[in-house]
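hiii, so i know i said id send this last week but things got crazy w the move. better late than never?? heres the sequnce for the chain we talked about at the cafe, plus the structure i predicted for it. fair warning i was half asleep when i ran it
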Amino acid sequence: MRKWISVSARAALALSLASGLCVQLGFTADGGNQEKASKAAADSLFKRLGGKEAIVAVVDDFVARVGADKRINKFFAKTDLTKLKMHLVNQICEASGGPCKYTGRSMKETHKGMGVSGADFSALVEDLVATLDKFKVGEKEKNELLSVLGPMKSDIVEKP
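okay and structure toks below
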């Protein structure tokens, strides 16, 4: 059974992400204080993404999107979604400089024998980008996150 974030919680998280982006771009309530914008740019990717609550919201949407994606949902048919979400949140949180620790298996071990292709991996990335776009994650943050997660491809993809 999937747990869903309420519409108001999603709206609040989306607003939080949008507010963070506005601060980063210098669109602040005090008329665009550049000192605040500079501080936001110096913050960790984790903070710029909106922290753990925002990552949880993104992961919830992403997992639902992957579950609906007929190109790749077969890989998750027997997956414990609650456990998957926990691992994804911790993995993204840690990779983005947050306080979480990923304690799951290595990507190579997890995906061994699954026959994941380059096209399958690309579909997953497309789903992640669509989710990040839905939450209006800035291009800089999106590219940073993808560059941190991208090297996992060699441990996940087994066939061209």
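btw Confidence is low (pLDDT under 50) at residues 1-38. thought thatd interest u
miss u guys!!
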